[in-house]
Amino acid sequence: MFSFRNLIIVLFLALAYAEPLKVRDTRGITQAELNQFELLAQYAGAAYCYDNIQNGTGNTVACTREGGYCPGVEALQTVILDSFFDVGITQTAGYVAIDRSHQLIIVSIQGTSIASNPIDALTDLNIARSKTTLCGKANTVDGCLIHDGFWQAANDVLPIVETTINISLAMNPDFKIVTTGHSLGAAIAALLGAKLRDDGHIVDMYTFGQPSVGAVDVSNYIENQAPAQGNNYRVTHYNDVVPQLPEHNLDWGTWDHYYPEFWISRQNGTVQASDMLVVTGRLYETGGNEGDKTGLGVVVDLIEGLPAHYVYFNPISGCDANAPAAVASSG
Ligand SMILES: *[C@@H]1O[C@H](CO)[C@@H](O)[C@H](O)[C@H]1NC(C)=O
Ligand SMILES: *[C@@H]1O[C@H](CO)[C@@H](O)[C@H](O)[C@H]1NC(C)=O
Ligand SMILES: *[C@@H]1O[C@H](CO)[C@@H](O)[C@H](O)[C@H]1NC(C)=O
């Protein structure tokens, strides 16, 4: 059992490592921004539904049949331009779709199936990083270290996704490209978005419950791509544990996030624009989602913070929870 003395030591260590509050903007967001976040959260969740990612090309994006929640998207009759499944050694899945009402070309990536096996999926987060060339001249601190699995997955799907984007953009030159995803899919969507920007596209990235993708160089690089090459909307919810992973103290404390973070500050109930706080800051930010750690270590954070991971405005991974067992366990 956890003795009182140990608790004091843990608290002391937590305090010792806490850094002073960084620059932090606590304004809310506009109603229009909130509407956009709620829409993209539905597109992100729809990547868990097998109807959309397996043989889905030509269909409209749907979630209800598989137990997911995307009524706003279903009403729009968004056509899937390309669905992809089991791509590359990372077996990445997702879809590219066209939303004519909002003039968007949407790339949505499915993460490893977290609902079916959260502990396995989350321990996957601790695997190695490698130096990459993504950051170019911004490669000054750590060699642009990126999580191997996320980086491989983004590279696996890039040619497929970009071929579809280029064709549909040629026919719809005024449309905007967005990448999105939840959880591990969010991490892949962020790196994919950064690479599409490098190819000359302007891409807005909407990620929900995204873990850290790498070290400081990559955060600098993605921050500096905005706003000229597209905006970064990294949405977190309350004490969701996944954006707090991998822990900073793994690999010498250099796992980092790009900012701003759009933090849903309320745990339950209907999110209002004023409930979403824009958090700016860097490395070991003590506000927003990071500031909601228990200070009692990752195991306690995991127990406390997993429920919030599955709710981004509404349940986001309903299709994952209902995935056929054989499919879910392969993820
Ligand atoms: C669906 O896609 C899978 C692989 O993506 C393929 O093996 C299967 O034959 C397809 N099924 C149909 C009905 O097209
Ligand atoms: C898509 O278009 C971009 C920008 O024009 C270009 O850099 C890229 O090579 C193209 N990719 C594919 C797969 O067609
Ligand atoms: C909010 O949700 C958490 C779990 O997600 C639950 O334990 C808690 O009771 C809820 N609080 C309220 C006020 O509904």
TrEMBL record:
Q: Which residues form the signal peptide?
A: 1-18
Question: Coiled coil located at which positions?
Answer: none
Which superkingdom, per the lineage? Eukaryota
- A GO molecular function held by the record: hydrolase activity
Domain (Fungal lipase-type): give its ranges: 107-247
Q: Which residues form the Mono-/di-acylglycerol lipase N-terminal domain?
A: 14-78
Q: Does the keyword section mention Hydrolase?
A: yes
The UniProt entry, under InterPro entries, shows: AB_hydrolase_fold, AB_hydrolase_lip/est, Fungal_lipase-type, Mono/diacylglycerol_lipase_N
Which GO biological process categories is it annotated with?
Answer: lipid catabolic process
* PANTHER family named among the record's database cross-references: FUNGAL LIPASE-LIKE DOMAIN-CONTAINING PROTEIN-RELATED, TRIACYLGLYCEROL LIPASE, PUTATIVE (AFU_ORTHOLOGUE AFUA_6G06510)-RELATED
Q: What is this protein called?
A: Alpha/beta-hydrolase
